[in-house]
Structure formats: C-alpha cells, structure tokens
Amino acid sequence: MPGSSPPPGRNAVVARLRAAGCVFAEEEARLLITAARTPGDLAAMVERRAAGLPLEHIVGWAEFCGLRIAVGPGVFVPRRRTEFLVAQAIALARQAGPGDLAGTATPDGPLIIVDLCCGSGAVAAALAAALHPAEAHAADIDPAAVAFARRNLAAFGGQAHQGDLYAPLPAALHGRVGLLTANVPYIPTDEIALLPAEARLHEPRAALDGGGDGLAVLRRVAAGAPEWLAPGGHLLTETSDRQAQQAAGAFAGCGLDTRVVTSEELSATVIIGRRSR
Q: Do residues 261 and 130 share a domain?
C-alpha cells in the first residue's frame, strides 16, 4: 500500500531488540514474529519490548512446566525457578505412603490441591495436569490474576477464588488439602527498588513485596496451614537462600515437620512442611 512502512524483517527485529539490551534477542524475535497477526502488530510489539515490557505480557503467554500459561499486563509472570517447587510437590504426591493423605487419591476422593498467591494459576495448573484427577483450587487477592487463573485452570476443571490467602476458599476444604502451595512474595520492601525494571514497573507490587524482612506473607500462610492440611499433607513455598532458615523456623513454629530443599541449577529454594497429625 502506498505510504505504508514495510514490516520489519527478522534481522531488523533482532537488531532492535539487541540495541534495547535484550540478551536473548534471537529467541525473542522468533516469538514476536510468530505471535504477530499483521506487520503492524509486529512493529508495535517490537517497540513495546524495546521499551521494557515483559515479553510474556506482549505475546500473551509464558511457558511453564511444559504448559502455555496465559498472562497479560499487570499479572505476575511465572518464573522458571518455580518449576522446582512444582517438581517437589509432584514427587511428594507420587511417593505418599500408607496413612499419608498427600497422595494422588485419598479415602474421601481425589487429591485436593490448593495454590495460594496463585497469580496466573501456573502452579495449580501444572500440578493439576500432572496429578489428574486432582481437585485444584487457586486463590489470589488480585482480580486480574484470578481472571487469568480461571482461564488457565479451566482445562483441568480447577477453580480460582478471589480474596486474601485462605479467606475465599470453600469451607469444605478444611483439613482435607493434600498439597498446599504458595509462591508468596518474598522480596523485602526496601529491595523492591533494586529489582529489574520488567518486574518493578510491570508486575503487581503485591506479588513481589514480602514486607520488612520478606517473610510477612509466608508467616501468615504457615500459620493457617495446619487448619487446612489433611494429616500427612504438605505445604510448599519458595523463598530465597538467605531467608531459608528463618522461613523454615516459621514453618516449624506452626507445628509442621520442616525441611529445606534447593536447586543450584534453577537457583531455587523451597521450604516443605508436613502436617504429621
């Protein structure tokens, strides 16, 4: 069409992304080109990425545990390191022994999974996919996150609830949850300003800010866990390596049998607590 600009070629897209500081410019260019519906879309998407918007928000999804998780502006993007938490939860469910209700089925029916601070619902979706026919529930205080969680859980028959931690969960789940996960915010308030701009400017602060020492939300999750977990059920949360001992102390202080597991490959630290009775 006369007067219209030609669509940017792949090399031009890569060069623009490199100039903007994108470390994985080639892979990002491939994803943007694939996602764009028109040449105009592509040009606009490249400029949004060059301006610092998260790639996942631009293309509308993030890969997590082999699933394509829908995300959008203002929603926390699931991190690859959180796949370690999912792997630990799946292993616990599959290795459950007699008298341990965290298995893939209980005397009362399917394994019940609850994911707090769920964001897009990525953790709950990954667990539901791996542990079918589990009953999956997710909760978040942010209505935008809950809307995406509902989309991502729909294929697995899961439910997403809006509210603060345990408050919106069905009362019928009391004492019946086999796997309770919570990818809580754990960045100390004073360190939020040090985060990369992608997170600091484009993800909800409530999904990042863990209070003065980064453990405020984790403590609340741990305090409520014994009321919701089935005997033998497990609580898993992610934290940083330097917070691990304090976090484990919070779990133990709530009566949970507690251990810390780490992955050097993913730079991930997970606290696991088990309700023993």
A: yes
Q: Is the dihedral of CA 96, 100, 102, 105 positive or negative?
A: positive
Mean local confidence (pLDDT), 194-203: 84
Interval 263-270 mean pLDDT: 96
What is the domain range of residue 208?
82-274
In a domain, 187, yes or no: yes
Give the domain CATH number at 110.
3.40.50.150
φ and ψ of 11, to 5 deg: -65, -40
User: Residue 204: is its pLDDT beyond 50?
Assistant: yes
Mean pLDDT calculated for residue range 196-216: 86
Cα dihedral 38, 41, 47, 53 sign: negative
Residue 98, pLDDT score: 44
Domain assignment present for residue 168? The answer is: yes
Same domain, 171 and 261: yes
Answer yes or no: are the C-beta atoms of 145 and 76 closer than 8 Å. yes
State whether 128 and 41 are in the same domain.
Answer: no
Domain-embedded: residue 63: no
153-176 residue pLDDT tens: 999 999 999 999 999 999 999 999
Tell me the C-alpha distance between 236 and 239, whole Å. Answer: 10
Q: How many domains does the chain have?
A: 2
